[in-house]
Amino acid sequence: MNIAAQIVGIFGIVLSLLSFQLKQRKYIMLFQMTASLMFSAQLFMVGAITGGCLDMISFVRTLIFANNSKKWASSPWWLAGFIAVMIATGIMTWKDPWSILPILGSILSTVALWMKKERNIRLVSLLVGPCWMVYNTVTGAYTGAISEVIAMTSIVIGLLRHDRKKITQKG
Q1: pLDDT tens digits, one per residue of 79-114
Q2: Which of 44, 36, 51, 38 is nearest to 2 (CA)?
Q3: Could you tell me which residues come within 8 angstroms of residue 79 by beta carbon, excluding any fewer than 6 positions away?
Q4: Where does residue 22 rank: exposed (0-12), middle (13-18), buried (19+ CB within 10 A)?
Q5: Which residues are CB-contacts of 105 (< 8 A; sequence separation ≥ 6)?
Q6: pLDDT grade, residue 164 (50/70/90)?
Q7: How far is Cα 117 from Cα 83, in angstroms, rounded to an integer?
């Protein structure tokens, strides 16, 4: 087991965990962006090239999406472009059938972070976790897999803390 890679993954865990507890979209995005860098580094360290490349793209994607209130970053072409780049990158770095998981997880994450409502970000992000959890386990990025379990738990807590009140107030 690559101890240094697991330590880098622990930093990613902390950032990911905190991101879904934040109320404002800009802070969710900032923490997600930084977590992407940590997990990308971890995946490269364990030789999981597909996941590492996709997490690097995710960093750039989140940087653009964090600014989608600005005209230059609000075009739906960004969403389509990032999805296309992720699919192409997944194909170019394909190692085995497990490689489909980070591609799917990255696409779902891209859709989630394109959304403007925090609740929708959290809901779609729940689907991302299982993809990355399995891929991280298979590739030896164990703290990345643990991060996905924690992130899914954190998302549920965030939904209960921030979104349950809004649903009951509307009803």
Answers
A1: 999 999 999 999 999 999 999 999 999 999 999 988
A2: 44
A3: 110, 111, 114
A4: middle
A5: 54, 128, 129, 131, 132, 135
A6: confident
A7: 20
